[in-house]
Each structure stands twice: as structure tokens, then as C-alpha cells.
């Protein structure tokens, strides 16, 4: 009989900051890459059973590594959602081949469909809408399709600032959701300031976009690490939250935790049950273990390994 290993955070649970927090964190998802996933001995020892695990597909990552990671994580009992970045997919045959491999080798039936963070397309596809229009996911019977959201805009899409092109793309995706059998949702870039995010999400409903939003949240990490990733990923005005924190010497060496950001969102959702944001999506910039521990301490369910032992 195998004995479970428990970290300190498994047994010491501080009281949540507010009663709405555990319910809001419950059902979170998390993002990994093949190289970061390879460092985790057991996802069942870290994540609640059924957690959705996104697998980011960076340019240059072999599809074999992506599929192998998906197979391993799915084999531990988790829902797997690989990225399909349009600009690194050469052509329709490549897209169909990826879908077939994910399905056949890992049982995958869901995807995050996005443009990808490179300047020029490597082949026939330029954006997520072209991937969706191809019909490949529908024909393969994918049950869930997520698309990207940008609460602070995206200069790759709107080079001059503003949100005209981003908003038009979301309207297209809303219309697409109404003619597909797949469940759809918006998964966003990570942000650090709740007020603008709340305003953005409220504006979606006013614009007739009713897709649920899974808000991107940066997990616990060193401040310098977060600033580096935020700049690289094009995080907008809320980057100032980190910059202000960096000016406070007493906080500079203290790891950032997203508790204030998430608490504000949780309180707003509790007061407005029709709020567009329904789930958290964790970007584990300070490590997968640190993010998983943070979610569990603040209210997520027990890990899959713990639950199976009860």
C-alpha cells in the first residue's frame, strides 16, 4: 500500500479572506507546458480530481511532446485542453493530424483555439476564427472549445490601441458558438487589477456576448518574475500594479500572491450572480506546485490523490 506524502499546506489551512473565495476558486484550471509538466512527479498529488489542465503549445515544441504530455496527464484522471495556435499550424492536413493524434493517443476532445503569439503565420492560418471555420473540430466531435479574451486589449490585434478588432472578433466567436454543438468559453490573458476586468466582463454582457469567462490569474511568484512575464506577454495597464509594488522595498522580496485581485472578483460575483466571469485559470509563473498549493489553501477541493485515499 502506497503512503501519501503531504506538504505543510495540506494540513494547515488559514481562514479564507472572505466566505465567497472558496466557491470562486473551486473548479479552477491551470496551464502547463511539456517541459514544466515533466518536473511534476504526480499531478494527482497536486490538483483536485477533474481539474482542467491546459497545455501551452509554444513555437518549436514538437507535437510528439505535446501529445505525450496530454496522454500522461489524461491518464492521471484530468481533463486536458491543448492549445491550437493558428500561426504555427502549417496547413489543414497538419491541423487534422494534430486533432487525430490528440484524440487517438490521449482521448482529448477539447481545445483552446487561439492565434498564437508570433508575428507572421507559418502557413495557411492567421487567427483562431480560421481554425474554427475549417470545421475540423466539429467533424472530430470536440465537445468543448475555448477562445482567447483580452480584458486589457491586445496590440497584436489592435496595433493602435483600443479594442475595435478584439471586440469584433469576440462578436464573431459569439455567433460561432450559436451554430456549434461544442460548449464554448473565453479564456483570458492574466491581469492584476480587478476594477478594469469587472468593467470589461460587464461590458461583454451589454454587447450581447454571453460566453462564460475564465479569467487569467498569475499564480504566486517572485515580483521580478511576474514583471518579466507580464511585459513579454503584453499585459496592459494593470502592469502598473506590479510596478507600484516593486517601488515598495518591504514588498520587493515578498512573493506576489493574487489574493486581492481574486477576492475582489469573488465579492463582485457573489453580489452579481450573472457576472460573466465563472472560473479562474491559473498561470503558474512561479511554478505549478506553488499555484496548486495556493488554490488549495484558499478553498479548492482536495487533491485527486487525497480524495481517492479517503
Name its key features:
single chain; 310 residues; alpha/beta; TIM Barrel; disordered N terminus
Short description:
This protein is an alpha/beta fold and 310 residues long. The protein has 15 helices and 8 strands.
Give a topology summary.
Elements: H1 8-11, H2 20-25, E1 29-32, H3 34-37, E2 52-55, H4 63-75, E3 79-85, H5 92-106, E4 110-114, H6 128-133, H7 136-140, E5 144-149, H8 164-177, E6 183-191, H9 194-206, E7 213-218, H10 223-232, H11 239-246, H12 249-252, H13 259-271, E8 277-283, H14 288-297, H15 304-309
Helix pairs in contact: 4-5, 10-11
Bin the helical content: 40-55%
The CATH top-level class label: Alpha Beta
Distance between the termini: 14 Å
Multimeric state? single chain
Tell the overall outline. globular
CATH architecture: Alpha-Beta Barrel
Report the structural category: alpha/beta
Summed up, the domain count is 1
Number of strands: 8
H and E order: HHEHEHEHEHHEHEHEHHHHEHH
- Output the radius of gyration: 19 Å
